[in-house]
Design brief:
Two copies of one chain form a homodimer. The first copy, chain A, has a single domain, classed as Alpha-Beta Plaits, CATH 3.30.70. The radius of gyration of chain A is 15 Å and the shape is globular. A four-stranded antiparallel sheet of chain A has the order 2-3-1-4. Chain A is an alpha+beta fold and 116 residues long. In chain A, a hairpin with a 4-residue loop joins strand 2 and strand 3. Helix content of chain A is 31%, strand content 37%. Chains A and B meet through strand 1, strand 2, strand 3 and strand 4 of A and strand 1, strand 2, strand 3 and strand 4 of B. Strand 4 of chain A pairs antiparallel with strand 4 of chain B. Chains A, B: One of its GO terms (molecular function) is monooxygenase activity. Chains A, B: It holds the Pfam family ABM. Chains A, B: It comes from Limnohabitans radicicola.
C-alpha cells in the first residue's frame, strides 16, 4: 500500500517497532487496535497517508504522512490514540523508535514503470 | 534491527517498495545485491544506520539515516549503487517511492522497557 502524498514539503512520522512475543491466545488485541488506529488517523485533519510493513520476525515499520507539525500534535493528543500507545508500551511492543521528519523531496516509479 | 542514531537533526531516506513478481528461478539476484548495498552503505561517510522490513506480500520499507544531505548525495553517486538502482527499476521493483526527510526529533522505548 503506497501513500499518495502531495508535493513536499510535508511531514513523516517514522515508527519502527518490534512486537513482543505474542501470547498463546493470539495477538492480544493488537490487530484490531492497529486497524482502528489507521481508521481514526485517516479522519484527522492533515493526515496525508500511511505505509506499513511487518516482517515474519515481528519487526515493523509504519510511516504516516502529515501536512504539518500541528496535525501530528493533534493526532498525538487524540484520547483513543493515547490509550492505544499506553497499551503498546505495556503489551504489544518489545522495542520501538519514533522519528518525526520533514520531507523535502520525493520521487518514485509508478506501477507501469513510469517515473513520477 | 533498530538503527542506533545520534540526537537529531539528521536525515532519513524513506524507501517504500513493492517487489515485482519473482522469476521462477528464485529472486533474480535481488537478495545478494540488497546485502551488498547495505555493506557498501555502511562504509559511506555520514552513514548513521538502516532499518528494513519486508512483508509476506512483497511490500518493503527501508529507512536509511545520514548525517547530511551531502552524505546522501555521495551515496547516490556511488557507481555500484547507481548500477543496482538501474537493476531495481528494470527487474526487481514493480513500484517504489523515495522520500528524503530531515529528522527533527526522535524518541522511543528500549528493549528493557525504559524510555529513551
Amino acid at each position: 500500500m503506497f501513500a499518495q502524498t502531495p508535493e513536499p514539503p510535508y511531514y513523516a512520522v517514522i515508527f519502527t517497532n518490534q512486537r513482543s512475543r505474542q501470547s498463546a491466545d493470539g495477538d492480544d488485541g493488537y490487530a484490531d487496535t492497529a486497524e482502528r488506529m489507521v481508521a481514526l488517523a485517516k479522519q484527522q485533519p492533515g493526515f496525508l497517508g500511511v505505509e506499513s510493513v511487518r516482517g515474519a520476525d515481528g519487526m515493523g515499520i509504519t510511516v504516516s504522512y502529515w501536512s504539518s507539525e500541528e496535525s501530528i500534535a493533534g493526532w498525538r493528543q487524540h484520547t483513543e490514540h493515547t490509550l492505544a500507545r499506553e497499551q503498546g508500551r505495556k503489551r504489544w511492543y518489545g522495542q520501538f523508535s519514533v522519528r518525526v521528519a520533514k520531507v523535502d523531496r520525493a520521487y518514485g516509479m509508478a506501477p507501469q514503470g513510469e517515473r513520477s
